[in-house]
Design a protein that fits this description.
single chain; 483 residues; 4 domains; five-stranded antiparallel beta sheet; 13 helices; 10 strands; 25% strand; rod-shaped
Length: 483
């Protein structure tokens, strides 16, 4: 295969040969230069011999033939060279076109699929088509261009993914920061003591720093502020419990209210693990108040309660469901009803005797006769009874009764007006009367007063429970805590 460079060298050689032939032709056509004349002061030499006309003609003819031959040779050479040049030029063009096509096929083999319409592919094809020689075509490294393009695409993909990742990461950080700030906001709005407030702020800033330094969404998602917030909220509740002026506090959760000692309240708070549940609690001081209730005896444990007894109060709501309205309280006083102050005693006695004497005599006789004529049997029976009786009856009876009525309410009034004799003895007796009635009921297991008898009960309960107690005051049940 001839290259374009070889064709140019051949062309240059041919041109040099033609130039040399032209110089030879010119040299043959030029007349010989005349010999110089004799120098002055010398004896002139013999004049040259004059050439003959025939010799001149021959010389001219010879030179003419040389020129014609040279011209013919030159023409033949030029035609041959031109033919060779044209042939070589056509062959080089064909070889160049074949090289270009092969190179384009190589481009198509590499740049396919997603790279079919890639701009680098178009640039390579344009560069191949613009090449002026096979060497220029062969210098085009399609594989390297393909690999470089793959690296560019991969780099662009990685850059795009990194950009997207950073955008998603920044969004995740922003969302997490907003979430953390919202979680801490309710706590920061509380009247925190200075040391606890500093701890809350430092914890919040630490979480923000961890979020901002995270390198992936997974790291951001792994940052959970809930355990920190729960711990800080518990510390705030402990602070409220310790700050309560009373020995006991009330934990409120929605409609539920429970009274605890401070140690018990802290323990209840420490058991909570859910953040949402913890936020439902509030802490109130347990300020005790006394209220009077008039309830049926059956709703007050039958009235068998002494002052100082620990109680719980329940009620029946409109749905006929029993609910606890007071978690803890104490009995201050139980007053018996007016019926217990009216003493009415009736006593009666009777005696009856009955005497009865009676005698009875009975006589009985029986006779039976049987006949048996042939195969039949005939029987006849005769019975006779005689009874004689005599008796005497007598009876005697006697009876006695009395009634005793005392109205203790009137006695109390008279005692208060100092209208009774021995008021101190009467007062001492009356102080024990009510409880003796209850004690005798329990001892004898005999009910003296009706279960629906109203009883006045004064209870001591936390003020937080009073509104609920008064709401259900006609449906209350007082339970005596025994454990």
């Amino acid at each position: 295969m001839y290259s374009s460079h070889g064709v140019l060298n051949v062309s240059e050689n041919i041109e040099e040969k033609i130039k040399r032939l032209r110089e030879l032709g010119k040299a043959a056509a030029e007349p010989e230069a005349p010999s110089p004349g004799p120098k002055p002061g010398r004896i002139p030499a013999r004049p040259p011999k004059k050439p003959s006309k025939i010799g001149s003609l021959r010389e001219k003819e010879r030179r003419k033939r040389i020129l014609i031959g040279a011209a013919v040779i030159s023409i033949i050479l030029i035609i041959s060279i031109a033919a060779v040049y044209v042939y070589l030029q056509g062959k080089a063009a064909r070889e160049l076109e074949a090289a270009k096509q092969a190179k384009i096929n190589e481009v198509n083999a590499y740049f396919k699929g997603n790279l079919t319409n890639d701009p680098v592919k178009k640039q390579l094809i344009e560069k191949i088509r613009a090449a002026q020689s096979v060497e220029d075509v062969e210098k085009i490294d399609v594989k390297k261009a393909y690999q470089d393009r793959l690296k560019e695409i991969e780099a662009a993909r990685v850059a795009a993914e990194e950009k997207k990742r950073m955008e998603e990461l920044n969004k995740a950080k922003t969302d997490k920061l907003n979430e953390v700030e919202l979680d801490f906001e309710p706590l920061l709005n509380q009247p925190l003591p200075e040391d606890l407030k500093n701890e809350v702020v430092n914890t919040l800033n630490s979480l923000k720093g961890s979020i901002n330094s995270a390198q992936s969404k997974e790291e951001v998602s792994a940052i959970n502020p809930t355990p920190y917030i729960i711990d800080l909220w518990k510390k705030y509740y402990y602070y409220l419990i310790d700050s309560a002026p009373s020995e006991k506090v009330i934990l409120k959760k929605g409609a539920e209210k429970h009274i605890y000692t401070k140690v018990e309240a802290k323990y209840e708070i420490s058991r909570i693990t859910e953040y949402g549940e913890l936020l439902q609690y509030s802490i109130e001081k347990a300020q005790m108040v006394k209220i009077a209730l008039v309830l049926p005896r059956k709703n007050v444990v039958g009235g068998y309660m002494e002052p100082g007894a620990k109680i719980q109060i329940f009620a029946q709501n409109k749905s006929k469901v029993y609910i606890k309205v007071a978690d803890e309280g104490f009995i201050d006083l139980v007053l018996l009803p007016t019926q217990a102050g009216s003493i009415s005693v009736s006593e009666s006695q009777s005696n009856s005797n009955l005497y009865n004497n009676q005698a009875t005599t009975t006589y009985t006789s029986s006779e039976q006769t049987t006949y048996q004529p042939g195969a039949s049997v005939i029987s006849q029976t005769t019975n006779e009874n005689e009874q004689y009786s005599s008796g005497q009856t007598s009876s005697e009876s006697s009876s006695a009764s009395y009634n005793y009525n005392v109205n203790l309410a009137e006695v109390l009034k008279a005692l208060a007006a100092d209208k009774l004799n021995n008021p101190d003895d009467i007062k001492e007796t009356l102080e024990k009367y009510g409880w003796k009635v209850m004690d005798l009921e329990q001892a004898t297991r005999m009910l003296t007063m009706d279960p629906n008898t109203p009883v006045l009960v004064i209870v001591e309960v936390p003020s937080e429970f009073v509104s609920d107690i008064l709401t259900y005051q006609n449906e209350l049940y007082i339970a005596n805590v025994v454990g």
